[in-house]
Amino acid sequence: MFVWITNCLAAMAVSALLIVVLKKVSHACSLVDYPDRRKLHDGVVPLCGGIAIFAAFAMVMLVQGNEPLLALNFWVGLLITIIVGVIDDRHELSATKRLAAQFVAAIILVNPLSGSTIVTGIALPPALLDISFLLLTVVAILFVVGLINSWNMIDGIDGLAGGSAAVALFWLAVVAGWKGAGELVLPIVVLLAAVSGFLAFNMRSPWVARAKIFLGDAGSTTLGAAIAYLVIRLSTHTHIAFSVLLWIVAIPVIDTLSLIVRRLYAGRSPLAADRSHLHHLLLDRSISPRTTTNIILAASALCGAIGCFGIIIEASNYLMTVALLLPLAVHSAFVFLASEEGTDWVQQSRSVAVAQLNPIPPTPIRAEIGMAHTPQPPSANNNTGMFSDAV
């Protein structure tokens, strides 16, 4: 326990110190984010938060002699991800190049040659084991790429991506400790501590009016990659069904899948930027950025708690998997009601009902009043990634 405490304090302190140092050199390195018509944050903000987090994490884990806890493929995969993210922060790479690099990093992180992949909790006949291994390896690679971009896509408001990572890492540490995976608890809590050092500068609070530093693509994508790796490794080493562990990352995954489906349904590219994320919809309801972040983090914490509780009481894998439809349904209902399509549908339904009761059409003045548009407040944003949805 003493080793955990000292390593965590060291990671938090080093992360905060690196942020202070890197803020001073970020302009010279062109690692800054400028406000524009989509990104309405105040002033020029450094994009070195992710570098500070993972530099602190690596220093503590490697200098303290804990490198055997994490395999070489973990460090190589994360290094590729963060390098590509830094290049993208500076030069804005094409979506094709970013996606290709992410698949390379995902293949390395999953490491199919190791002979292990995600656990499903389903007993299969021996004849299907080889086929299932191949299919599950593909699923694992897609999961890593998906979570990389999920974290990149939620990085659109102060404290959200880092806070979501902190929530996920907390529940992963609880599950790892409960299942006796002590070799995973230390790296998880050290990474959590490094993220906490960053959040002191990024999360809005009574002492921090606005984020003083952003994760950048390097930070958000690498956080997604690290969390995906930890989920897969926890599944393989503790034999927890992969679908059950999805509760811990349910909100980012559901929001990303929902957004992609809605864009495709509307005939738009899934890579196109818009204001359809959960945090955008909350902001457009005149909810403050700080409250919006807290609402989403509370939902993430609740989902993680449900998943952790299900693991502790050894609930049925089938039950826990099917129960994921509940947060999906709640998210879909809110998105429908809060989105422009849902609002138009409700208004149209009400108009039809009024017309049936009163065949006399409303006067133009009443129609104009009924359709009056309320201007929406701007919101802070720090997303510049592959699926960038900055406002």
State the domain count: 1
Count of extended strands? 2
Shape: globular
H-E order: HEEHHHHHHHHHHHHHHH
Beta percentage is under 5%
- Output mean pLDDT: 81
Tell me about the largest β-sheet. 2 strands, antiparallel
Radius of gyration: 22 Å
Strand order of the largest sheet: 1-2
Low-confidence stretches: 342-357, 360-391
Helix content estimate: 55-70%
Structural class: mainly alpha
Protein name: UDP-GlcNAc:undecaprenyl-phosphate GlcNAc-1-phosphate transferase
Membrane topology: Multi-pass membrane protein
Subcellular location: Cell membrane
Cofactor: Mg(2+)
Please sum up the structure shown.
The protein is 67% helix and 1% strand. It has 391 residues and is mostly helical. Helix 1 runs parallel beside helix 7, helix 2 packs antiparallel against helix 7 and helix 6 runs antiparallel to helix 7.
Can you walk me through this structure?
Helix content is 67%, strand content 1%. The longest helix is centred in the middle third of the chain and has 29 residues, at 126-154. Helix 2 packs antiparallel against helix 7. Mean pLDDT is 81; it is low at 342-357 and 360-391. The protein has one domain (2-341). The chain has a two-stranded antiparallel sheet with strand order 1-2. The chain is mainly α.
